[in-house]
Write a structure and sequence with these properties.
With 55 residues, this protein is mainly alpha-helical. It has 2 helices and 2 strands; from the N terminus they run H-E-E-H.
Length: 55
């Protein structure tokens, strides 16, 4: 679909991303080019802190 109709793809993607992003379930660090689940980012940060404490 992305290659066949990029306009519809972008509209659908915006609708899909919009809800979770408004609910702070998704975050982006590059103005919407890439989205990450908030829980995954938090888990990554916690994992890095544990590694630093072990050193």
């Amino acid at each position: 679909m992305k290659d066949q109709d990029p306009v519809s793809w972008n509209i659908g993607l915006g609708e899909y991303i919009g809800g979770p992003a408004e609910d702070d379930q998704l975050v982006t660090f590059d103005n919407g080019s890439t989205y990450y689940w908030t829980q995954d980012v938090e888990n990554y940060i916690e994992g890095e802190e544990e590694i630093e404490e072990a050193c």
